[in-house]
Specification:
This protein is mainly alpha-helical. The protein has two domains: 63 residues, no CATH class; 123 residues, no CATH class. It is 44% helix and 7% strand. The protein contains five helices and five strands; from the N terminus they run ααβββαααββ. Helix 1 runs antiparallel to helix 2.
Length: 230
């Protein structure tokens, strides 16, 4: 009886470890890259994405692994930065006094737009925080945990883009060039990182897409759809 119990316990543990290893490998290599992409596109919530990442961390802890033996995270086959599933993925400009919500470099005058600062990471390659020029409330957000329990969880980069695009709408050329450059040089490489999730970049793919369209053909998204001019 004792030997049978030992064998059964050993077999049960082997089976449980094998199942956990299979689930962990699938989550690491296939599921989470897809979920991350949907999160960056604004199609998946922080709560769901965070719970899945927490589950994978638990599996790694149980298996005492860092995941190096699992398959390399796959390319999901669709760009996170150049494809919109719907016209509604494009971002509309804020029209209700947007400059009041930002800390611009200067005050608009003579039909010219204020210069709006770009967001800034503390480290572009291995960021720990991201600062926004918001006039009210928090301005510095942790990359991995941008919101506290009571915080407004609207995507921060989407919020910034709406305000900044609206604030500079009377003369948008400089902002369009600056934001497009910052997104391509700093944000896009982070979105392409299949080994790390950046919660602070919720909806970032929408911003990249909208900014690219505005910079390339002189349109700005209004009401979720492109509009000629700014």
């Amino acid at each position: 009886k004792t030997s049978e119990t030992i064998v059964n316990d050993q077999t049960r543990r082997i089976v449980m470890v094998s199942v956990a290893d299979a689930i962990g490998g699938y989550m690491h290599g296939v599921m989470l890259p897809h979920v991350n992409q949907e999160y960056y596109k604004g199609h998946e919530s922080f709560e769901v994405t965070n719970e899945l990442h927490a589950l994978l961390r638990k599996i790694k802890f149980i298996l005492d692994t860092d995941g190096r033996g699992w398959m390399t995270p796959v390319d999901t086959g669709r760009s996170t930065t150049t494809t919109a599933d719907k016209d509604e993925d494009l971002i509309d400009e804020e029209t209700d006094n947007p400059c009041a919500a930002l800390l611009p470099y200067g005050v608009p005058s003579d039909g010219r737009s204020a210069a709006v600062p770009m967001p800034a990471f503390d480290d572009n390659l291995n960021p720990g925080s991201l600062a926004f020029p918001f006039a009210v409330g928090k301005r510095l957000f942790a990359v991995d945990r941008p919101w506290m329990a009571a915080d407004d969880r609207r995507p921060l980069l989407v919020r910034y883009y709406r305000l900044a695009a609206g604030c500079t709408s009377s003369a948008p050329e400089q902002f369009r060039a600056d934001i497009n450059r910052w997104l391509n040089e700093v944000v896009v490489p982070l979105l392409a990182n299949r080994r790390r999730w950046y919660p602070v970049l919720a909806g970032a793919s929408r911003v990249v897409l909208t900014a690219a369209k505005a910079a390339s053909n002189g349109t700005a998204a209004v009401g979720g759809r492109p509009k000629r001019g700014a």
